[in-house]
Amino acid sequence: MADPLSIGASVLAFIGLADRIIRACKYCIEAVEDAPKDIQMILGEVTSLRAVMDGIGDSSASSLVPNLYGENGPIRSCKGCLSSLESLLPTNIGQPTAGKRRKVILVELSWPLKQSKVRKLLAEISHHKATLLLAMSGDMSRDLKEIRLGIERLQSTISEDILETVLTRLEVLYVVIDAVDESTARENLLAMIETLALDQRFQNLRILATSRQYFDIEQSFSKISTSISMSNPMVDADIRKFVYSRLRSSHRLKRWNARFEEIENVLSAMAQGMFRWAECQIQAIERLRDQSKLQQLLSNLPRGLSETYTRIFEAIPEEDRPLIRRILVWIIGHSQSPWIYHVGVNAKLLLSAVTYEYLGCEANNQNSIIDLEYFQEICSCLITVRHVPGDIFDTLLEESPGSQAKVGTDGEDLYVSLTHYTVLEFLLSPHVSQTNFAFFAMSSELIRLEFARTVFKQALAADPKGTSTDWIHDREAYCLTLGCALYICNTNESPSVAASVYPKWDDAND
């Protein structure tokens, strides 16, 4: 690994070279009225690359990618590309551009002869820049882990005595603890709440805790709390409004308009405060093709979300189960990966990746029956497709239950995620392995391994001549980029797991 002084000098030389190219591009754009568009592309690419190098110089990314500054590393390769670009641009800048000088600039550019070489260099720079961004993201991931550990250490030093001291200065302190059932250390949290509720030192502390109905939580709270059920008139009224709105806004439900009031009454009465349960039953009604089946469905509604999901997975035909499992693994795996956007996996990418894994080849839109509409049909009530226009990094996604894909889009702005966190909770629950749909039983580690394997497998099969760096929409670019990120994270966190998932990667690097 290079010493810090050499690294600093290398970064400064790189930035100096980038600055010269930026000045040359600006000079050409200002001097020539109809300057080639490629000049603008060079300016944009080199400007963004310079910003990345500024970040690299201030980070410890080189410890994650040891050959970052090596002979064949991305920084030296980028520098070589920049040197080649500089040789294609005018060298005498800053002089007057009127008259004959303008003609000299055009002669110096000789752009038609240089265009193909420039675009090839830009593609190579873009590829290396993706590697540098990956190194920076890995460095940020490590920093976040250190921050988290620091917070955990801080939390462990906050003692009951300190809390008691704080409370002596307050007349009353209200604390809201939401979703106790989602705590990963539930026993510790329950013990802490019990202490705060019973210890006389904290008598001016008032706690409101929310949770779904779990036996251990009910047992722990039964003697220290007053129960407030979410199944109450106010929530029931809100659910009725929700059902009313959904029935009248769905085109597929218009045929049931004569029975809307009956459906509202039944669903509102049985929802027990669960909007998600009501939505699942409405989607089940939407799928009915035989009108005579409605009464049977309303008379035999599932009790709770667990039974609802059980019926959904039981109803999936055997021939569709392998495909649906792949879809779920990709959606969940993407959401849990060291990634930088959280609106879901791009629909175009998901379709391409799952089809490639399932059929062993790229999806052919002309012949394949596997398309986004098919995904939504077979995964009904399990996945949501949202339209997110523009740059996903600048978009604030608003949650919208039951939102659907917009008509007439090719998937570029569509993103797929699980409809609700309870879908994942259900798949991870131990009792799924004891059912007749045990094929869908999962664990966090299993999802991680399955997703890493398929990403890595598709990365190895990628076209070595491919130049795409669009890791949002392009399957190969996604797998190559995320494959590296998964490798780095898994190697740092769990070398044994990395060895079982990535043996060929290590062989390839030897």
UniProtKB/TrEMBL annotation:
Domain of life of the source: Eukaryota
InterPro entries: NPHP3-like_N
Domain Nephrocystin 3-like N-terminal: from-to ranges: 118-212
Keywords: Repeat
Protein name as catalogued: Ankyrin repeat
